[in-house]
Write a structure and sequence with these properties.
six-stranded mixed beta sheet, about 5% helix, Elongation Factor Tu (Ef-tu), domain 3, elongated, 2 domains, 3 helices, mainly beta, about 50% strand, SH3 type barrels, six-stranded antiparallel beta sheet
Length: about 160
């Protein structure tokens, strides 16, 4: 398990007071962008001094930077968080972790999660490879019977008529 979790990218600055605009579709922003916690940018730790959401972007100020000229060097940089600082509960899973899960079906096929797509409004779709065929399965689908975090398994029941990708 990787120690750093990718959150997004600093797309630009906002205003003249050193605020940064982060483009991110991270699933737990309330845990990632908490004031007083730290973000990792270019292997350096920066404390979050303020946070707000504006037009779908995550807006932060860092350390004691309070001028646009002080933060321009961060534009375009990738933003990470130390995994342990997220304080995830047992049922909270990161998308990147699901890529390590095995998929088991009611027909005794086993496979793996190849990719995860965010279709908007928190709806996610798993691209699953089973028996050399790929399927798209919505996370909110009744086809997903159980997600076992301890065994890193997703148990699914393929519905009749589901087509491969």
């Amino acid at each position: 398990m990787n120690n750093l979790v990718y959150l997004g990218i600093i797309s630009t600055t906002h205003g003249i007071k050193g605020e940064l605009k982060i483009t991110s579709d991270f699933e737990y922003p309330e845990k990632a962008f908490k004031v007083g916690t730290y973000l990792i940018i270019d292997n350096k730790s920066y404390e979050i001094k303020s946070y707000r959401v504006h037009k779908g972007y995550h807006m932060v100020t860092l350390d004691d930077y309070n001028n646009i000229n002080q933060v321009l060097f961060l534009k375009g940089k990738k933003v990470y968080k130390v995994r342990s600082e997220l304080n995830l509960k047992e049922h909270e899973i990161l998308d990147e972790d699901l890529l390590e899960y095995t998929v088991l079906t009611n027909d005794c096929f086993d496979g793996k999660v190849k990719d995860i797509y965010d279709t908007g409004n928190g709806n996610k779709v798993l691209k699953v490879e089973l028996n050399n065929k790929e399927y798209l399965i919505p996370m909110a689908s009744p086809m997903i019977l159980k997600i076992n975090n301890e065994k890193k398994e997703i148990i699914i029941e393929l519905m009749e008529g589901i087509d491969e990708v």
